[in-house]
Specification:
mainly alpha, 6 helices, 0% strand
């Protein structure tokens, strides 16, 4: 929820409280009463979407960080296998062509290459370990693949939650704006002869403007020295 949305939400809260303070002025079946009740149900909906939006943004940011870390760890594992395979190619012709790391930074390309590394390295595990690769280097490689896949999924889930919550928030606030527009007409008519209560409504329903940031006055230009 941005600042403007939050200021509008504050006006909804004040309008709801105004309705509660003047509840006895409206018959239970009156349109004004119905609209005030509707506003009261939309506000929690707005809060729920705002909370989900913040949660989604947090998940997206966390997923971005985790994805970067998982990508770097996977690339390091591939570099170690590639480096070793180039040495092993002296005894195993054609091996140098199998283990190539894509230059494209696309994570899906990196994952595809990593799966190929795992498949091609498995029958040569003993030769890799003879060159002092860890005994669990294939297990670690598959773990890095899974970690990057999970990070990508989590990031996408966060983006989806953020976008969905944002759309829900926009819809709820549009409905609240429509309720406020209709209530304003009703309150102006109802309290046309009661300026005190009408002023109370106008103050409650008013959406505050964003604070203006005035520029500090610039220092005066010093006079030019005499010629």
């Amino acid at each position: 929820m941005n600042d403007n949305e939050n200021r509008k939400r504050q006006s909804y809260l004040r309008a709801r409280d105004f309705g509660a303070a003047h509840a006895s002025d409206f018959a239970p079946t009156s349109l004004g009463k119905q609209l005030l009740n509707t506003l009261g149900t939309i506000i929690p909906e707005i809060d729920g979407h705002a909370t989900s939006e913040v949660t989604g943004v947090g998940q997206e940011r966390e997923g971005t960080t985790t994805r970067r870390e998982a990508r770097e760890a996977l690339r390091e594992a591939l570099v170690a296998i590639r480096r070793t395979a180039r040495v092993m190619a002296a005894d195993i012709p054609g091996l140098d062509d199998k283990f190539r790391i894509p230059r494209n930074t696309n994570d899906q390309h990196l994952l595809t290459a990593a799966r190929a590394f795992a498949a091609d390295a498995e029958p040569l595990a003993a030769e890799f370990m003879a060159h002092e690769m860890p005994a669990d280097f294939l297990i670690n490689l598959n773990a890095h693949i899974a970690a990057l896949e999970t990070a990508i999924s989590n990031q996408a889930s966060g983006v989806g939650a953020h976008v969905s919550a944002g759309a829900g928030l926009d819809d709820a606030m549009d409905r609240a704006d429509e309720v406020m527009r209709r209530l304003d007409a009703i309150m102006r008519n109802k309290y046309a002869n009661n300026p005190g209560v009408l002023a109370e409504w106008l103050s409650a329903s008013h959406v505050e403007r964003a604070p203006s940031h005035k520029k500090s006055p610039s220092s005066p230009t010093p006079p030019a020295p005499p010629a």
